[in-house]
Specification:
9 helices, single chain, mainly alpha, about 180 residues
């Protein structure tokens, strides 16, 4: 058994290790307590329910996926941002097998709404970041967007394609980047 865990951060660290090794579906109070070397009741001190433990673990994994390098980025253009994002999530999918497409299914049926809300929160944050980069990309043609195809709608369409490619486990996003180039530059 490990040293006794006395912090929420260490519980989440052990939970991430479980997700890496066995997937998000392996997260439960007993499994995490065993990994931490503590009684199940100790986990309940930090997480009153399995749902709260899974929610915190999912959030922690998302943070790890997007902050693996520890660097902060300023992208020169939208394509560079998309490429970085695709590569980061692909690395995260390799580090946490099955996480990207399965984490919202790990919640009990009554808590699926909470899992879906968390996923939408992270996806919303990603889309807002993409929109910000797009709006600050000086290479975008002045007539690239109009009332029908707004920058916001473009980001939604690109993100839908992007997530579909990830769910299909595509290794690269060259076609998406080419499509972006032809549409906006």
């Amino acid at each position: 058994m490990n040293n006794i865990v006395t912090s929420k951060e260490m519980i989440l660290f052990e939970s991430r290790k479980i997700v890496m090794e066995r997937g998000i579906s392996a997260i439960n109070m007993r499994t995490v307590a065993n990994a931490c070397g503590v009684a199940v009741g100790s986990i309940y001190n930090y997480f009153p329910s399995k749902t709260e433990l899974i929610t915190a673990t999912v959030e922690d994994v998302w943070k790890d996926i997007f902050h693996m390098s520890g660097d902060t980025f300023e992208f020169l253009n939208f394509k560079d941002c998309l490429l970085w994002l695709f590569e980061s999530i692909n690395k995260g999918c390799k580090k946490y097998p099955g996480f990207f497409n399965l984490h919202s299914m790990s919640f009990a049926s009554e808590d699926k709404v909470k899992g879906r809300q968390m996923m939408e929160h992270y996806f919303g944050h990603i889309k807002q970041s993409l929109l910000y980069v797009l709006e600050h990309d000086t290479n975008v043609r002045s007539n690239a967007f109009n009332d029908i195809l707004t920058a916001d709608e473009f980001v939604n369409l690109i993100f839908t394609t992007f997530t579909s490619m990830l769910l299909q486990r595509q290794e690269h996003c060259k076609a998406l980047l080419e499509m972006v180039s032809r549409c906006i530059y």
